Amino acid sequence: MARKTRIIPPPQITCPEEFSTPGSYRHRLPDIVNRVVDSCSSRECFEHVDATPMPSKQRAIDILESCREILFPGYFETQGVDRVDLQYRLGQEISGLFRSLAAEVTKSIRHECLRHGQSCQHCEEQGQGKANDFLEGLPELRAILATDVRATYEGDPAAAGYDEIIFSYPGIYAILTYRVAHRLYELGVPILPRIMTEHAHSITGIDIHPGASIGASFFIDHGTGVVIGQTAVLGKRVKLYQGVTLGALAFKRDKNGALDRTSKRHPTLEDDVTVYAASTILGGDTVIGARSVIGGNIWLTKSIPPDTKVLIQPPKLILKTRARE
Question: Tell me, what's the pLDDT at 23?
């Protein structure tokens, strides 16, 4: 029988010249607490006291991971899945997803209702109804994600296969998250979609607002620094490289000086458009015509007709030969 190794913790080392005096600092804590509490009454600071709980960020991430297991069965399971138990495993996962999603959607609706003084929104009924509507669309989500994976494989010669793309490509994770969040956004679920896309943003560097409209066979190559705004519209087979921004020009304001949050602020890219690295396209009236190619480091605030290449004049390079010693 193997002997268990006893781990002996290292001795605590203290300085004989230093004395612990926590009391001299701890007595200040009540005053700090009182000052922080008093600051909660200031309109210039933010607090969430006496409000209904918001949806849980961790549960939103768990819902997203559950969606990923359902949308790509067998890829992210701790145990293998075969045809015999596929229906059972998916049944368990979808049933659990319904409960979790209904609970978080209910919280999201209730929070908006009470926080903003709305009339009764029948939160529980809406939560379950919207969760069911989301689950009804899972087959369509699987189908459009399949086009995104294929577009990634066909657009990236470095891709070894579909499995590598699904397992490891940040672009696919960001697109999957967007498509899940966009469906919830379309169903009128508040807060939760943005929590999901900001989670993907934090781990991939790709920022896609759940309100954007993006067609099938979408491909993000490399991805870091890509930004797609709320009212952007992308057609089918659009390809974006790293550092691309589809953003807004100066924001419009109403007569009271408040931001106009309803107008289209972000560009439209029609079918088969490619935008290369570090290019910026701005404005709600800006339309990039079908099959156009936008080169790298381009700044665009006006529309481009279909079948157009937009390039910049190559900069003049200065080559200096170092003198030999």
Answer: 65
Distance, in Å, from the CA atom of 228 to the CA atom of 247, rounded to the nearest integer, reads 7
18 confidence band (pLDDT: 50, 70, 90): low
Residue 120 to residues 115, 117, 235, Cα–Cα distance (Å): 12, 9, 38
245-247 and 280-282 strand pairing: parallel
User: Could you give the CA distance from residue 20 to residue 325 in angstroms, rounded to a whole number?
Assistant: 63
**105/200 Cα distance (integer angstroms):** 19
- With cut-offs at 50, 70 and 90, classify the pLDDT of residue 21: low
Asked if residue 305 has pLDDT above 80, the reply is yes
| 3-class secondary structure per residue, 158-224 | CCCCHHHHHHHCHHHHHHHHHHHHHHHHHCCCCCHHHHHHHHHHHHHCCEECCCCEECCCCEEECCC
Domains of the chain: 52-206 (1.10.3130.10), 212-254+261-319 (2.160.10.10)
Radius of gyration of the chain (CA): 26
Distances in Å between the alpha carbon of 67 and those of 54, 62, 73, 136, 207? 21, 9, 10, 13, 19
How many CA atoms, within 13 angstroms, populate the side-chain half-sphere of residue 173?
A: 23
Average pLDDT over every residue of 131-150: 97
**163 Cβ neighbours under 8 A, 6+ residues apart:** 75
Where are any strands of DSSP class E within 76-129?
Answer: none
Q: Report pLDDT digits (tens) over 203-239.
A: 999 999 999 999 999 999 999 999 999 999 999 999 9
Spatial contact of 246 and 267, defined as CB atoms under 8 Å apart:
yes
pLDDT (average), residues 98-108: 95
Q: Is the pLDDT of residue 307 over 70?
A: yes
- Residues 6 or more apart in contact with residue 110 via CB below 8 angstroms: 52, 121, 123
Assess contact for 219 and 155: CB atoms under 8 A. yes
